[in-house]
Amino acid sequence: MSHDGRPHVLLYTDGACSGNPGPGGWAYILKHPASGKETEKSGGEAETTNNRMELTAVIEGLRAINRPSRVEVYSDSQYVLKGLREWMEDWKKRGWRTAAKKPVKNRELWEALDSLKQTHDLSFHWIKGHNEHPENERCDELAVMQRDRFAAGL
């Protein structure tokens, strides 16, 4: 439990894509330090982008947490982390438009994340990709397996 009574959860995420757009995969690992419980899950799409897979991994991981928690999100995606930490509030104020007045890409995924952000107390950590971080390596492996499965049309 964290100091405010909310469970403390670690969420590791990754996405993978061949071509942009192309077949892609996402994966997450959820760790509950208090109980030692760990869950992993992955999925993919036949036609997607890397950024969509990175976002989907975080959304699916947060959706799997069944009560409001203090969640530390670990990702190697600056797009996801900067979006959550810095850009999203401004996008919302501008009616989901960028500083250049263009519609925000992947808006429905950002809106899903925004809603999950209201439920959980989130903190964000950037992990350098492919740098022998065990959970990030495992998420990458799972996401790549899904990407390859969709690339093969399975």
Find the count of extended strands (DSSP E, 2+ residues). Answer: 5
For the largest beta-sheet, the strand count, sense and barrel status come to: 5 strands, mixed
Helix and strand succession?
Answer: EEEHEHHEH
State the share of residues found in helices, binned by percent: 25-40%
Low-pLDDT residue intervals, each spanning 5 or more residues? none
Strand content: 25-35%
Distance between the termini: 41 Å
Task: Kindly report the spatial arrangement of strands forming the biggest sheet.
Answer: 3-2-1-4-5
Cα shape: globular
Number of helical segments with 4 or more residues: 4
**Mean of residue pLDDT?**
94
C-alpha Rg, in Å?
15 Å
Structural class: alpha/beta
Q: Brief description of this entry?
A:
The chain has 4 helices and 5 strands; from the N terminus they run βββαβααβα. The protein is α/β, with parallel strands linked by helices.
